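Exercise 7. Given the components listed, write out the predicted structure of the assembled complex. Treat all entries as one system.
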Amino acid sequence: MRQTTGVRFETAFLSNNPPDDERTKRLIYWCHRFDELGLAPKSAGNLSFRTKTGFIITATGIALSDAEKENLVEVLKVEMNETQIRVRVKGRVVPSKESVLHSGIYALRPEINVVFHIHDELVVELADKLNLPGTEGEQPRGSHELAQEVNRVLGLNGDAKYLVVRNHGIISMGETLEEAGKLVEDMHKIARNRKQKGGRNEGNSSL
Ligand SMILES: [Zn+2]
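Answer.
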């Protein structure tokens, strides 16, 4: 069910060294944790944290269960127009196609140092019942339009650190990796409890 944007995604490699930052260990921990929780089916999900020169993010097309230092990459710059997205990176792999989304959030919210995008299908399903802020309409994955819509919703919800991307996934943000990660776990737990209350026979998760 992969949607394409019709926009060309180009990567310019400025260095072949994988990012060297202590925090990558914790980023990898959260990649594996979300996989354990079933929140990253196939190669869904992209996780990043801010650096002095940009942000370090997971590669495109990599399952979070396979995340390791070599498939992380530092995005230094994202440039875009209607037909093309061009990213400048340090590393060996092509960054997530959602780099545009991450870049937009870091530009808008100076206090946010971590952005996790994953596919928590339970939260997506119950978004309205849980009264969570979320995007309207549906924008193609990895598109400028999706990044703009997320920024619009964040603009309306001042200090929100969690929002739903309609029919798609969620975005969790934090000042630290642990804050954004725990928020994902907490919201997943809340959704699971809500689902169980809503109908005991409705395919409860056994996580
Ligand atoms: Zn997604």
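Discussion: Strands lie at 8-15, 46-50, 55-58, 72-80, 84-90, 114-118, 162-165, 169-174. Residues 177-198 form the longest helix (22 residues).
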